[in-house]
């Protein structure tokens, strides 16, 4: 009977998961909403994992917050119709000493009119925008669980800080400024890649896949790789994961080369990332200190020192000595007291006195 009940429950959970994925695919097939492949994949994973306790407890909040961010970012450009085109251009020209824009310079050296292997590689990194943070989340959850919620807090704090900036400062990417002839012509390499995989009208597809075309400052495509590098170094040490530094470096070059972001967007993304990491680590440290604090033994108003120092000053623990067998005339608390560790026994004793 137990086996039959377990199989029935598993069948029900599998049916719910399959139904969620089917509904999601039906919505996608109806072209509402038009989300990028990585975001749609996250939603499908969220639906497929429904019913798993471990999934719902750890990964579902991460995915749900990502989906919420994606929905909100699509509304940002509707809240503020004023689009900024030139501040980022001025910064990049100043950085280049008044010469060419970095995007123009990179394309003059790397683009010859036909797609190369690195074009596909860089765009693959670009489209894995949401997938890589999820993979790293699973890795940290499995290998360094104490760091998991700090990672989630940092990446979601970064994302929603970026959303607020998108509302206050809508910023056009280089390709859009080029389309409006505000900067010298820039070739949009992503168009060639879409056409190479069989998409006849990349403009129509991109307009539907991108919920917000003016969410460029800060660049989360620059921010997420740096945040991932910071947490992997924190989790495993720089000697073991130094090679991961190639990921943000390649993506930073790629988004400027393909005309998706200015250098200004990357600088802003780096600043936002460092602020989010510092805040997340500080918050985690504060929570850890409060969690490790020892309840006061002498009453609610008395200050208590840390557990390590208190244990050293208390010396080795010796159970109380009683006359006669422990069970004669002793209460349950008195019989259990010698079995508790020193800190627990002191707390228990204080509680028994009503202090």
From TrEMBL:
It is a multi-pass membrane protein. Residues 101-278 form the Inositolphosphotransferase Aur1/Ipt1 domain. The keyword Transmembrane applies. The chain crosses the membrane at residues 12-29, 35-52, 59-76, 120-141, 148-169, 213-233, 240-257, 263-282. It is found in: Membrane. Keywords: Membrane, Transmembrane, Transmembrane helix. Residues 293-355 are annotated as: Disordered. InterPro entries: Aur1/Ipt1 (IPR026841), IPC_Synthase-Related (IPR052185). It comes from the Bacteria. This is Inositolphosphotransferase Aur1/Ipt1 domain-containing protein. The lineage of its organism: Bacteria, Bacillati, Actinomycetota, Actinomycetes, Streptosporangiales.
């Amino acid at each position: 009977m137990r086996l039959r009940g377990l199989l029935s429950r598993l069948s029900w959970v599998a049916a719910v998961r399959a139904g969620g994925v089917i509904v999601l695919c039906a919505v996608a097939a109806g072209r509402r909403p038009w989300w990028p492949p990585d975001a749609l994949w996250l939603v499908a994973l969220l639906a497929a994992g429904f019913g798993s306790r471990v999934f719902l407890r750890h990964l579902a909040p991460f995915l749900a917050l990502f989906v919420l961010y994606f929905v909100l970012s699509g509304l940002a450009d509707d809240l503020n119709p004023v689009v900024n085109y030139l501040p980022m251009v001025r910064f990049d020209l100043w950085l280049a000493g008044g010469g060419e824009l970095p995007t123009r310079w990179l394309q003059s050296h790397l683009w010859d009119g036909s797609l190369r292997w690195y074009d596909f590689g860089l765009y693959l990194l670009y489209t894995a925008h949401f997938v890589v943070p999820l993979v790293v989340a699973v890795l940290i959850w499995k290998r360094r669980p104490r760091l998991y919620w700090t990672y989630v807090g940092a990446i979601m704090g970064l994302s929603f800080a970026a959303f607020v900036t998108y509302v206050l400062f809508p910023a056009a990417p280089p390709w859009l400024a080029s389309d409006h002839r505000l900067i010298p012509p820039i070739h949009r390499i992503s168009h060639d890649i879409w056409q190479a995989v069989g998409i006849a009208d990349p403009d129509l597809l991109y307009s539907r896949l991108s919920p917000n075309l003016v969410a460029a400052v800060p660049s989360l495509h620059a921010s997420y790789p740096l945040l991932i590098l910071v947490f992997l170094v924190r989790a495993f040490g720089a000697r073991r994961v130094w090679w991961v530094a190639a990921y943000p470096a390649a993506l930073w070059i790629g988004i400027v080369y393909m005309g998706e972001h200015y250098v200004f967007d990357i600088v802003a993304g780096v600043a936002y990332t460092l602020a989010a990491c510092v805040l997340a680590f500080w918050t985690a440290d504060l929570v850890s200190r409060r969690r490790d604090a020892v309840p006061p033994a002498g009453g609610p108003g008395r200050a208590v020192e840390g557990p390590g120092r208190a244990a050293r000053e208390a010396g080795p623990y010796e159970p109380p000595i009683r006359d006669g067998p422990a069970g004669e005339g002793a209460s349950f608390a008195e019989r259990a007291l010698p079995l508790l560790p020193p800190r627990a026994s002191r707390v228990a004793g204080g509680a028994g006195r009503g202090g």
